[in-house]
Amino acid sequence: MRILAVNDISCVGKCSLTVALPIISACGVTCDILPTAILSTHTGGFTGYTFRDLSEDIPAILSHWKSLGLKYDIIISGYLGSIDQIGMVKSIKDDFLKEGGLMIVDPVMGDNGKLYAHFDDKYVEAMKGLCRKADILVPNLTEACYLTGIGYEQANGGDYAAVLNALKALCPRPSVTGCDEVKSGKSVSTVYYTDDSGKTKTYSTEKIEGAFHGAGDVYSSALAGALARGVQTDKAVQLAADFTTASIRQTKADGTEARYGLNSESQMLAFLQALDKAAKN
Ligand code: PXL
After folding, report:
1. Rounded to whole angstroms, what are the CA distances from 24 to 1, 108, 110, 221, 235?
2. Exposed site from 73, 141, 144, 228, fewest CB < 10 Å?
3. Considering the chain, what percentage of its residues have pLDDT values greater than 90?
4. Atom 10 of ligand 1, nearest CA residue
5. Helix crossing, 58-68 with 83-96: angle to 10°?
6. Which of 19, 42, 111 to mutate to test the pocket of ligand 1 (most atoms within 8 A of CB)?
7. Alpha carbon of 160 to ligand 1 centroid (Å)
8. What is the Cα–Cα distance from 228 to 222, expressed in whole angstroms?
């Protein structure tokens, strides 16, 4: 099994490739990387960060890879620095995904109802085009709202199944993470997802108060690693959600500033043991 992770390198503030590479590799799966940009920190909660867009390097990297005949079982895309890069990822799927392979798109654009710095409505429109090429879509609630045109205030605490259904216009197997079941009075955070037969399902974990940066990256990386190990979607979602929640709990217990990312390292062994039990290969 070979995965390609297309995402940025934020040198500090664990997210993107500094999360995807260790988690996917620890799952026992080869993880090649295509960095989209290099930043001194990610853009959420820091000011004065550096940002080097790597778009100019990507065509030469890809043509070298073509000469090597590289093909991937899974391609997972995350933070893309520009609309041009969205176009590049679409052709990366066409050129490098094996027949029958999985394209996982994490449409990284925002959180807590707002777009991240550098993104606007034009970017959202372009991202919809990439989502149409995804086999599996893993937005958080904010991103799902931007992709469907459903207002965040309306969706938050409301009918999450409706948001998931609206995403099906873009991709056959969408999911939505970070759905807080506030109105039902339960203190849980739920993933709404589509199982292998196309049915809508949910999986809930303890809701831990606070906004934790990089949680989406931990979730999507663990999900990709578990799917690569042959785990069915239901179990892969559970493993990824449990690992993410355990990492958030650890971060809160450590008192680490949320912008520095999740302390998932100490939760990795338990995740891998659970994965090993569930995995077929
Ligand atoms: O984790 C999402 C993310 C990834 N990469 C960069 C970001 C963010 C969120 O702010 O800024 C560069």
Report:
1. 11, 18, 23, 6, 16
2. 73
3. 95
4. 44
5. 0
6. 42
7. 24
8. 10
Q: Tell me, yes or no, if the pTM score tops 0.70.
A: yes
Q: Residues 205, 210, 214, 218: what is their CA dihedral angle, to the nearest 10 degrees? A: -10
User: What is the rounded CA–CA span in Å between residue 194 and residue 168?
Assistant: 9
> Rounded CA gap, 34 and 5, in Å?
6
Q: Are 2 and 28 in contact (CB under 8 A)?
A: no
Give residue ranges with CB within 6 A of ligand 1: 8, 10, 15-16, 39, 42-44, 79, 108, 116, 214, 216-217
- Helix locations, the chain, DSSP H: 16-26, 58-68, 83-96, 121-131, 141-148, 152-155, 160-167, 215-228, 233-254, 268-278
Strands 30-41 and 51-53 turn out to be: antiparallel
**CA 44 to ligand 1: nearest atom:** 10
Q: Which CATH class is domain 2-280?
A: alpha beta
Residue 144 CA to residue 156 CA, distance in Å, equals: 11
**Two tokens, residue 85:** 């890069």
pLDDT in tens, 193-242: 999 999 999 999 999 989 899 999 999 999 999 999 999 999 999 999 99
pLDDT digits (tens, 9 = 90+) for 175-193: 999 999 866 677 899 999 9
What's the 70 CA to ligand 1 centre distance in angstroms? Answer: 27
User: Which atom of ligand 1 is least distant from the CA of 108?
Assistant: 2
Q: Mind giving me the DSSP string for 214-230? A: THHHHHHHHHHHHHHTT
**Confidence check: pLDDT of 53 > 90:** yes
